[in-house]
Amino acid sequence: MDTSTSLPTIFVSIASYRDPDCQNTVRDLFEKAAHPERVFIGICWQYVPVDDDDCFVLDTRPEQIRTIKVHASESKGVCWARSQVQTLWRGEDYFLQVDSHMRFAAGWDDLLIEMLGKCESPKPVLSTYPLAFTPPDTLADDGIVTIFPKEFDDHGVLSQRSEISNMKDAPPVPPRNAFIGAGLVFASARIIEEVPYDPHIYFEGEEITLAVRMWTKGWDIHVPNAVVAYHDYGRRQERPRHWHDQTDWSTLNQHARKRIRHLLGVELSGDGENLVEIDRFGLGAVRSLAQYEAFSGLDFRARLYKGQPLQRPGLAADTPEQVAARKAVFTLIWKENLWACEETRSGAGSALSATTALREWLPKTLDFLDVRILADAGCGDANWIKDLTTSLRFYFGYDIVPGLVGDMRSRMQERTNCFFSEADIVTTTLPESDAILCRDCLTHLPLDAVLMALKRFRQSGARYLIATTHPIGRNAWIRGGGWQALDLTAAPFNLPAPRMVLDEGGTKKLGVWAMADLPA
To answer: Residue 57, SS3?
Structure first.
């Protein structure tokens, strides 16, 4: 390390991918620093010779700049590049990570050190999304930017959003937060050794995995309460993206997604290619993943934030695409008998041997509840219930599979009190009945689809809901047609304990709720 200054020194990490504005970022870092002599910059230049020669004009303090030059074709993404930059650290006191297209507030170095000193934590990290600027140097109005979760994608990887508050409302001390912005991270340089950048994450999931790794290793994230930097968020033709150039980026991203799911406890991976150096770049032991989830409000397995589903609008269960996909998957299951039960295509749980106690309990329960009109939501082929319908005034069977409904109408045509209709219980409000039976159906739906179905059930005007539940304390996200031991008393449903219960074996229960018990 250069010891020509007695001031605390700062190592600035920049990963630059074919970015002609990087030289301006470097120039602005030095020009706006209160003490530029203490700033040392490390850059991973990812470039194409000749085409990108205009990216390399470094005319300010070149002796304080360290570089790694890599042909763009050899780059493995932004996290890999940031990991490369960290090898250029030479013992400076502080670590600052920024992007290659940024501008800075006057005295940014003093501001960051002062703010870090005010943080109420022994191992603080300052991080946020910088405010915007338009090149060359038109800066956005000042404000305090706080990061929040935005949505989980179809692979369970979290993206983030931010909110800006007025500077007059800035707190006196940088407040704690659970989320980082990778384009502005400031901390003691010890963090390079304790939480080294994971080169095996591609791009998606970079921020949430870094935040969790920091937090579980005892580092606390804080929101800067003053403006220190600005970021160019524009999509500019002169700044190519890695995924535009590389043919193998999707493979890198697929491995990274599986690695992220493993790290965050969503789905453990047994593939060594996804777990390279996982011990070095894994979670810490100071605090647990469960503690991070409690602090942040996230549930990675269930894709919840503060107890509610958090996913892309296009993946919501009531969109036309998801409605069509749901019908397609259950139709395929029925046609191909994918649940592999010889007795019934509705699966082994609907076999007579699996429903002996149920077939004794249900008629008594319906009689006790004075149920004369029963709606069976997700009726399947009515294998176990068909002989119980004779005591009902009306039995209405609803299923999403058109062929199955047609088959049941033909097979049960002599039962004048039985009617079968095609219906998607996620999007259809069923006609009023005394009770809705939904056995072994909600367990095959994503959580937001279950929430929508419960809302439809309440809107139907039925007095009771009789549904499968597994009181295990939490839920996970699944694809439609999958299965999980769904707990209707856990988030995001939070139903009270059922008023009556049949124990069907293992964790499986059939519970009875008054429809008024369901949240409005």
So the answer is: coil
Please give the full DSSP string across 166-177, using - where no structure is assigned.
-GGG--SSPPEE
Residue (of 198, 311, 312) closest to 256 by Cα position: 198
Full-model pTM: 0.91
DSSP conformation class of 349: G
Residues 6+ positions from 56 with CB-CB distance below 8 Å: 23, 45, 47
Strand (E) or helix (H) holding 241: none
pLDDT of 385: 97
Torsion of CA 471, 476, 477, 481, to 10 degrees: -50
Do the beta carbons of residue 473 and residue 490 sit within 8 Å? yes
34, 5 Cβ separation under 8 angstroms: no
Q: Determine the Cα–Cα distance for residues 490 and 484; give it in Å rounded to an integer.
A: 13
- What does the block give as tokens for 419? 């009617």
Give the mean pLDDT of the chain: 94
Q: Do 484 and 478 contact (CB within 8 A), yes or no? A: yes
If you compute the radius of gyration of the chain from its CA atoms, what whole number of angstroms results? 29
**In terms of Cα–Cα distance, which of 127, 130, 294 is closest to 214?**
127
Phi, psi torsion values for 290, nearest 5 degrees? -60, -40
Report helix, strand or coil for 447: helix
Rounded CA-CA distance 339/205 in Å is 34
Cis amide leading into 492 (omega within 30): yes
C-alpha dihedral sign at 506, 507, 508, 513: positive
Average pLDDT over residues 363-386: 97
Q: Phi and psi of 152, rounded to 5°?
A: -95, 140
pLDDT, mean of residues 268-294: 93
- The DSSP element (H or E) to which 479 belongs, if any, is none
- Inter-CA distances, 447 with 116, 172, 315, Å: 40, 40, 12
Q: Which of 504, 514, 501, 507 is nearest to 436 (CA)?
A: 514
Tell me the residue ranges of DSSP E strands in 78-217.
Answer: 94-98, 102-104, 124-127, 131-134, 138-139, 144-152, 158-165, 176-177, 184-188
DSSP notation for 299-312: ETTTTEETTEE-B-
For tokens 């890999």, name the residue. Answer: 80
Residues 6+ apart with CB under 8 A from 459: 429
Percent of the chain with pLDDT over 70: 97
Contact status, residue 12 vs residue 23, Cβ threshold 8 Å: no
Q: How many helices (H) and strands (E) does the chain have?
A: 12, 24
